[in-house]
Amino acid sequence: MIENHVIRLELADNLKNLGVNKNSLFIWQYDNKNEKWDCWLHDSGEKEDDDIAAYTASEILEMLPDEVKFPSYEEYNNFRLEITKIEDDSYDVRYFNTIHGIAVMISGHLLNILPHMLIYLIENNLIDMDKIK
């Protein structure tokens, strides 16, 4: 099922509401007949206004910056993206530097934590939105 390879509808909708409008291989589309959301392969045509990009983990990863400057640290405020597999289906995604350690870390399944990290960066003005639109 496609739904196992894309981010959940709620996270995709949150990203859309935050201004992320990048194209994806897949879209969440509302099926009026069955009154439910379905995930489809996005063809090259235009998507409808109410369609929502259903990003894959690799698409979200492309949007995450490899480095973030956290203004709360005066010196050595460049933090690098690190992803560590900690169990079979669980990962840590964090921004880290050797002086200050971890600035932010989220753990869990990649399809859940990658969009959460992107949302965190957007909501805290730590990412240039022009690079991900």
Describe the model.
With 133 residues, the chain is of the alpha+beta class. Strands 4-5-6-7 form a four-stranded antiparallel sheet. α1 runs parallel beside α3 (110-123) and α2 (57-63) packs parallel to α3. It is 23% helix and 32% strand. The longest helix has 14 residues, at 110-123. It is elongated, with a radius of gyration of 16 Å.
How many runs of DSSP E, i.e. beta strands? 7
Q: What is the percentage of strand-forming residues?
A: 25-35%
Shape: elongated
Average pLDDT score? 90
Number of helices: 3
- Terminal CA distance reads 27 Å
Q: What share of residues is helical? A: 10-25%
Main sheet summary:
4 strands, antiparallel
Number of domains: 2
Structural class: alpha+beta
Supply Rg: 16 Å
Task: Give the H and E element order.
Answer: HEEEHEEEEH
Order of strands across the widest beta sheet?
A: 4-5-6-7
Features:
133 residues, alpha+beta, 3 helices, 23% helix
Helices, strands, pairings?
Blueprint: H1 9-17, E1 26-31, E2 36-41, E3 52-53, H2 57-63, E4 67-69, E5 78-87, E6 90-97, E7 101-108, H3 110-123
Antiparallel strand pairs: 1-2, 1-3, 4-5, 5-6, 6-7
Give a quick precis of the structure.
This protein has helices spanning 9-17, 57-63, 110-123, and strands at residues 26-31, 36-41, 52-53, 67-69, 78-87, 90-97, 101-108. By secondary structure, the protein is an alpha+beta fold. The protein starts with 8 loop residues before the first helix and ends in a 10-residue tail after the last helix.
